[in-house]
Specification:
436 residues; mainly alpha; 16 helices; 0% strand
Length: 436
């Protein structure tokens, strides 16, 4: 299952997950196209408020999926299938409880949540409407990512890709139906996004309910030790995905602080859609490689891991550089698809995007190294890089750079934090190499 040259393994595991996760990001992007064309700038700003919460949900699901995946790979390698299934079921119980808790508490404190996430008084009601559907259907969002990750670890990466593709397709159809024929406004866009994961779950569930692989549902008492191990192994993945949400939160607050208003929030939403595509490519490839890295680690095939990692670094950097060139020369057309009648917003956003994205090829390197170190149980190194690129460097840069050099440097901070983090990751890699 994990035999072949690095190129073959990369295309067998990394590419299907990259494609699936890329189309899964259509959940959010299609909303933006419909909202921008149908409802305008304020509605786009209201939808932007929900992005950090949605990314936090995905972060929790990926943490459980990747943490359980690392542990399951080791159990399956040593033919301990019962223990592997217990870990899978423990992860399912954890996310099930978390999803119900978010649905209940989110609905009880909807408007305070919207305000906390950056909603201004002018867009508070629209933001609360959008968030209502997101929190209500949170359990399905969590389970779609968990089951997708478990299917990959069970040797069926193409099934995970198909589930994401079909979920995205249903979301596109429902966006149109809810916002045009049914005229449901911003609530229709949110409902379409919330329902998409249900279709993905429906496609993935038969693999487990019909016992088509080593992993399936079985009666078990969730073990505290398994839950703790899942959280420890999965925490770097949580931080890695949480970065998207936390970056959006920091930027929403900073943009408001420096007086950009709804124009700035709407522009950052458009940049966020482009950022989502960029990071989805990297996250998809990294998640797809996790079972392979974990298998080689469990089988003590360190040389195969090293060769695959080296090949993957080149692939990630190539994707990152190609993506930046497309942004540099063609971002205007991407942004214009959202608000064709608001050329002022398109012009402003296209002008800021090269500054925002200049360091994103290095973000791919950072994400790959986090995934590699996490998959091989080098959790400390993965956690350091995850924290540097999320809650350590970026907030400091957002405070210092605009204060020293003017508010325009707000748009440089994210890439600067990625570049500094990449230097640290390269340093850790060099130290580990010298220690061998």
């Amino acid at each position: 299952m994990y035999e072949g040259k690095p190129r073959q393994l990369f295309f067998r595991y990394a590419v299907p997950q990259m494609v699936g996760l890329l189309f899964n990001s259509v959940y959010t992007i299609v909303d933006g196209v419909f909202i921008g064309n149908r409802l305008g700038r304020e509605a786009m700003a209201a939808a932007a408020v929900a992005v950090p919460l949605m990314e936090i949900l995905i972060a929790m699901a990926l943490a459980a999926a990747s943490g359980a995946g690392v542990l399951i790979a080791a159990r399956l390698e040593h033919r301990k299938e019962w223990e592997a299934r217990n870990i899978f079921n423990t992860a399912a119980w954890m996310l099930g409880f978390t999803g119900v808790f978010i649905a209940v508490m989110g609905n009880l404190f909807l408007r305070p949540l919207a305000s906390l996430l950056g909603a201004t008084p002018d867009i508070l009601e629209q933001s609360a409407t959008y968030l209502r559907y997101i929190v209500t259907f949170a359990p399905f969002q969590l389970f779609s990512f968990l089951l997708g990750g478990m299917v990959r670890n069970d040797g069926r990466p193409r099934l995970a890709m198909a589930a994401m593709l079909l979920g995205a397709a249903f979301n596109v159809v429902l966006d149109y139906v809810f916002m045009y024929p049914m005229n449901m406004g911003i609530g229709g866009a949110a409902l379409a996004t919330a329902l998409g994961p249900i279709f993905s779950v429906a496609i993935l569930l038969p693999h487990f309910s019909r016992k088509q692989g080593a992993l399936y549902f079985q009666k078990c008492r969730p073990a505290r030790s398994d839950g703790k191990a899942i959280l420890i192994c999965g925490f770097p993945s949580f931080i890695m995905e949480f970065t998207i949400g936390i970056v959006t939160f920091f930027y929403n607050v900073t943009i408001t602080h420096y007086g950009y208003g709804e124009m700035g929030l709407a522009a950052y939403l458009l940049i966020g859609y482009l950022m989502l595509i960029f990071l989805t490519l990297f996250l998809g490839m990294a998640e797809g490689l996790q079972p392979v890295f974990s298998h080689f680690m469990a089988a003590e095939k360190s040389e195969q891991n090293r060769v695959l990692r080296r090949f993957s670094i080149g692939a990630f950097l190539s994707v990152g550089i190609s993506g930046f060139l497309l942004i540099f020369f063609g971002s205007w057309y991407f942004f214009a698809a959202f608000t064709p009648g608001d050329l002022e917003l398109v012009r402003f956003t296209a002008g800021q995007s090269p500054f925002y994205f200049w360091g994103f090829p290095l973000a791919g390197f950072n994400i790959l190294m986090i995934s590699f170190w996490q998959s091989t149980k080098q959790t400390g190194s993965a956690l350091v890089i995850s924290l540097l690129r999320s809650i350590l460097l970026l907030p400091v840069l957002l405070v210092i750079l605009p204060a020293l050099s003017g508010r325009e440097t707000v748009w440089l901070c994210h890439s600067t934090s990625e570049a500094l983090t990449a230097c640290c990751a390269a340093g850790i890699l060099l130290i580990k190499k010298n220690e061998r």
